[in-house]
Amino acid sequence: MVFSTLLFLFLFLPAVIIGNFVLPFRYRNYFLLLASFVFFAWGGVSYSLLLVVSVLINYTIGLLIHKYRGRKGAKIAVGIGVSLNLLIIVVFKYANFIFENINFIRADLNYDPIHLEKILLPIGISFYTFQAMSYLIDLYRGQVTVQKKLTDLALYIFLFPQLIAGPIIRYHDIANQIRNRENNLDNFVSGIRRFILGLAKKVFIANQMAVIADQAFSIPPEGLSTAFAWMGVIAYSLQIYFDFSGYSDMAIGLGRMFGFRFLENFNFPYIARSIKEFWRRWHISLSSWFRDYLYIPLGGNRKGVGRTYLNLFIVFFLTGLWHGASWNFVIWGLFHGLFLVLERIGLGNLLLKTWKPFQHLYTLFIVLISWVFFRADTLPSALGYLKAMFVFKPITMNLDLISEYDNVLYYIIGAVAILSSSTIWVDTGKVLAEMQKKLSPVANIIYVNIGFIFELLSIIAVLVFTTFFLVSNSYNPFIYFRF
Description:
- This protein folds into two domains: about 5-180, no CATH class; about 190-415, no CATH class.
- By secondary structure, it is an all-alpha fold.
- Helix content is about 75%, strand content about 0%.
């Protein structure tokens, strides 16, 4: 089940909201845990059992770390726990990829291929496994206390708002909220506002941009014009940002509806002026996870220049692999790692001396090129797509396709997407807030009431139009199945 479906919006979510507020607080965790299981099991009960097994493993390992704290047993326990979590990911996410590459080598050596039944990827496995590992590692480091109540740890790992598409939640950020949180009207209203914002990003922008991107990337490279190739990758860059940040907004909003406060996951990454800044703004929960649990333990930048560069490449190799079992994802990660190293070597200082718009253009250009590897199904198709972008082919090759998007709807969606990738709405809100401070008491009351009515009508309008889009258009892609 995903957030941007009629089933979730008009059946599952209302039922869970009502149940959460009707039940006494002492039963709400059990209720949310049950709801989360139903949410995840909707796509297949068998993989829900895998999630249950993951919870039981991490609960048991957590108790062992606590029992042997300060002794060698704790180190052994956390090692076993992390290894088991990684084993789950390797088996269910990377086994097919590993054996495909083994068979490729065996074919070159004239050996018969190893036949392996295709393993379906459980949705959200990378998110909930990383959360489980962060609990064990933080517990071993003494940064959190052990969770002795199985259902509470299960709720942390299972909680449906962030279960299948993030953000990656750290246990220490949510531990107190599991037992003590405020289910008040302010949190609920702000949660609805944030959820509707995310839903609008997903349905109005991401889904519409996906149509262009999917069409462009489905064309054989030799039949792709340069103009449509650029149009396709720009559309994909907007799709993945508004899809991913939209899901994060919905997760954060849902969390607030139930009293939880999740940390932000995106901070306008497309306004970055370097790749380093881009990764401070893009998928913050993932980049900070790799920083704290891999980059720093590897030595970070404390063991010399060469080791720092190696650590960056290791981190971004695994960042790419985390996103999917494909060499394209690996190349995507290493491509970003390369420019992070180049910026450390001196490119970053050189950029600071250039015109600021050029810094933005440099970052967007690198990010756009990297998205080709991220989106293309195979390495040859990615290279072919890049060739179409940079070796001129006339627009007439795809003029009939381009003309499909030459209309007012796509002009509006594109303009809103580009503006919303910047901080213009936030800056406008700050200006209005400053103006409000200068109003008289009576004028301030009028301003607040008008603002409330406008916001309420906007939320209702977005929900109505979203429903219309979902009813009238079955195209509603879910791009996290490989994560």
